[in-house]
Amino acid sequence: MTSATAPGKIILFGEHAVVYGQPALAVPVFQVYARATVEEGEEKGIWIEAPQIGLAATLEALGHDHPLAMAVELVFRSLGQSPQGQKLRLRVDSTIPVASGLGSGAAVSVALIRALSAHLGQPLPDEQVNALAYEIEKIHHGTPSGIDNTVVTYGRAVYFVRGQAPQPFSIRGHFTLIIGDTGIPAPTRQAVADVRRLWQADPKRYNALFDAIGEIVQEARQALEAGDGARLGELMNANHALLQELTVSSAELDALVEAARGAGAWGAKLSGGGRGGNMIALAAPQRAQEVAQALRLKGASSVILSALGGNHESGVEGTGAL
Ligand code: MEV
After folding, report:
1. Side-chain half-sphere of 188: how many Cα atoms within 13 Å?
2. Counting C-beta atoms within 10 Å of the first and last residue's C-beta, which end of the chain has fewer, N or C?
3. Whole-model pTM?
4. Could you report the per-residue pLDDT of 92-134, keeping only the tens digit for each?
5. 259 alpha carbon – ligand 1 mean position (Å)
6. Dihedral of CA 90/94/97/100: which sign?
7. CATH of the structural domain 171-308, one choice from 3.30.70.890, 1.25.40.70, 3.30.300.30, 3.40.50.261
């Protein structure tokens, strides 16, 4: 049996604008993860199970455009092997809520690509894992920037610009990131498509919003490298206001953002595609529990606390094959 895991991810700054060439900052979230296992089966064919989404089917039955089938087929193609005649059982488990902005689709793809390529005797290097996961992201997102698969593959904090090699960055100081889930699933594909329609109807206005978000990202990188929590909080608030203008916030996200600020967070914003899913708040470690409690009281379906900076610098921890 061969297993591999991949972490979740959260975008700190720059979602949506990153699709249009602006930079964004994101970190892995190791508290949640996807795990794929591959073992030899008794019967001919490739059997795929994903209990969290109630899936149990053969590769053929899934069809070529299903993300899991696509991951399997891409791995075989990349390795110059054929899925015909194989006897394999694949299983994908994930603790990452689907359509919540935590990169569940990317993590499942990365874990499956790693486990299957390793099982077939040719573990793919990260660069190729990332490239294949990006192909699958196109099914999930339509026009993805590639940030989700990149953070999840490398398992480290990245400064990301579409089409460029990701740049690692350092985080000075100790912050706690509080990640609050509205519990409302919101497919990124829909939000990204809606923003695209708005941009097409009024490119001048939306390009200006994307530029403003890009400037916030540059400043946020400096503030992270300088360890300036208060400034990061202000920048999160400013980024959230611009995301509201992009129409990707929601009443539930706004309520959690307000609750976090009211409980003493330096700042808060939605994270990922928006419309539902998760928001993030940044606080000093001694304030984090209060912020988390405020989010729970306001109806967050789950709250994750994640250390940012200090020993956790660049978020590098074990991912990859177990
Ligand atoms: C999704 O995690 C982030 C978005 O910017 C989409 C993308 O970058 O592909 C909304």
Report:
1. 30
2. N
3. 0.93
4. 999 999 989 999 999 999 999 999 999 999 999 999 999 999 9
5. 25
6. negative
7. 3.30.70.890
